[in-house]
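Notebook p. 47: complex prediction with magnesium ion.
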Amino acid sequence: MTQNSMQEQVLAALRGVLHPHTGEDLMAAGYVRDVEIRPDGEVRFAFTLQPQDPGSLVKQARSAVQAVDGVGKVKVNVQLPQAGTQPSAAPAPPRPAPSAPPSGDGGGLKPGSVPAPTPKPGILSETDHVVAVSSGKGGVGKSMVASNLAAALADQGLRVGLLDADIYGPNIPRMFGETRRPRVTGGKGKEMIEPLEAHGVRLMSLGFLLEEEQPAIMRGPLIAGILRQFLEQVDWGPLDVLVVDMPPGTGDAQLSLVQTIDVDGAVMVSTPQAVAVGDVRRGVKMFERVNTQVLGIVENMAGEVFGSGGGEALAGDMGLNFLGRVPLDPAVREAGDAGKPTVLSAPDSPAGQALAKVAEAVFKALHTAKAGAISS
Ligand SMILES: Nc1ncnc2c1ncn2[C@@H]1O[C@H](COP(=O)(O)OP(=O)(O)O)[C@@H](O)[C@H]1O
Ligand SMILES: [Mg+2]
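Predicted complex, structure tokens below:
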């Protein structure tokens, strides 16, 4: 087939995808730009996803193109409309300080009472959005949520990185089935670490670099330095979203992250029980104190054993988004054993479906957060 007729067929395929709400086809509605067909059959195009659009639209476009005869790889460069490029947007003021809420259990510290982060210019300059996944304590499924969020967004065509900032218990390598060692590139003095890529996500973890037996006590003092190196000296390349799997708690690592880079928002993971909920409350306060927006709360491990509803009630109580409820599901453990996140290994399982919805909710909240930070 000639390049030209393939181009025509690809465009026809895209015209065949109709927006579920407006009924317009993707080409006519201006969603797709820069369609490029390479000699080897790889097709690339840019896709602008509006906040109100279902994330599945990108997937539909991708499948339609993939179905055209002769098409090899399909690479979609998903773009979120930047609030700053909207016609009515005023020049960006500094990050808004949340208005003073009634003092809760924040220990007397008010939001913004810690100096605002002063991210170093240039760090992650090719990254559009940074999301930190955090929790009050360990074992609640923070790494599981971070992994599935990253994998689900990558599956939609976004360029995604996943940074394992849990220096004490890095579990991203296992969740992605990765045991290779990252390569170092660049000349003397300019060495960069290359992230490993698995399931469409660029990964970096201390677990790739340290021997397993290395005691945690040696890792402690390294935290701030290592995080900084992971941000500055890892060749992430252009990313739509960098997901950061945070260590549990509200300590130095959280502070050092928000002081090193501009975090767009934090996703808090909680189990349904009241105890976990209290820990999350402290976590939320911590992010508010450093003026980092909390995108919302994910309730994980809901079910008969732990009950359900605690996370949602907390979200309501604190005026936060509820990003979804993930049930206790054997598919999650199996995914861990298989080294492939549940949204990819068992997309139809209860947890797989719930996690895909969580990813969509986070994606939307992220967009709103960015728009809000500029227009308010
Ligand atoms: N919804 C779930 N259903 C079943 N098992 C889960 C679920 N969420 C997490 N787990 C399991 O619980 C353990 C802890 O999860 P993990 O993501 O490592 O927690 P954290 O990062 O918060 O310490 C893992 O073995 C994981 O497979
Ligand atoms: Mg973890």
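Notes: The CA atoms of residues 166 and 247 lie 4 Å apart. Residues 142-143, 166, 169, 171 surround magnesium ion (ligand 2) (CB under 6 Å).
Next step: compare against the earlier run before touching the bench.
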